[in-house]
Amino acid sequence: MAHQTYAGPVRWVVVDDGKLPQWVRFSRPGWTLEVIRPEHRWSGENTQARNFIAGLKTIGPDERVAVIEDDDYYAPGWLDRIDLELQTASLVGQGWNRYYHVKTGAIRENDNSRHASLCASAFRGDALELFRRQCKRAPRLIDVPMWKHASSRRVFNAKLVIGMKGLPGRSGIAGGHEMKTETPFVLRQWIGDDAEHYSEFR
User: Fold this and answer.
1) Distance from C-alpha of 92 to C-alpha of 83, rounded to nearest angstrom
2) How far apart are CA 105 and CA 13, in angstroms?
3) What does the alpha-carbon distance between residue 148 and residue 26 come to, in Å, rounded to a whole number?
4) Left, alpha or beta for 49 (phi > 0: left; psi -120 to 50: alpha)?
């Protein structure tokens, strides 16, 4: 987020439901940071919908929301692109998503042209309300049914977000966490010197 080129104001709402609170160290002119720490209740289940509900309590109906997942990669121009795309639709996101497994070097390039992964989605207006309803329903996957029912949506191909797999922490529920086949040096081809941030996890 420190490398984002977007020059407008940003309100970053972080939801941290870990057993031990994380010290969030971030300061940037024009950005406000709010950290929400719900009661820690984890016994192996996915807590994504519950955490989104906690964060959405602070979000008004006229705000624009971009999902930022803490284990994924966002190129510097991501928020600029989202700002542009939300002028044309209430639900927008990057399709043709890429996954990279940091431990094995395995990759996956998908052909999803009709929906975006939640980590690469943003919304406003009626799509924001749809997102609220989906989180309350707490399906295993929030993104696919949301994209199916949104009335105003746009999927674009930009290669600005990469779903990072195999990082420490709770296991994810989306595909890609089990990838095994190694593809050396691809991450550097995709994101340049930013690949160094992930070298310690190999």
Assistant:
1) 10
2) 31
3) 35
4) alpha
Give domain limits for the chain: 61-201
* Residue 37, number of CB atoms within 10 A of its CB: 13
- Tell me the pLDDT of the chain averaged across its residues: 90
Q: What is the Cα–Cα distance from 167 to 94, expressed in whole angstroms?
A: 22
pLDDT digit string (tens) for 55-111? 999 999 999 999 999 889 999 999 999 999 999 999 999 999 999 999 888 999 999
The alpha carbon dihedral of 102, 13, 65, 17 has a sign of positive
Give the chain's radius of gyration (CA, Å): 17
Classify each residue of 11-25 as buried b or exposed e, where b means 16 or more C-beta atoms within 10 Å of its C-beta: eebebbbeeeeeeee
pLDDT tens digits for 13-51? 999 988 888 888 899 999 999 999 988 776 666 788 899
Confidence at residue 22, expressed as pLDDT on a 0 to 100 scale? 82
Dihedral (C-alpha) 159, 155, 12, 189: value to the nearest 10 degrees?
-10
Residue 59: both structure tokens together: 């979000």
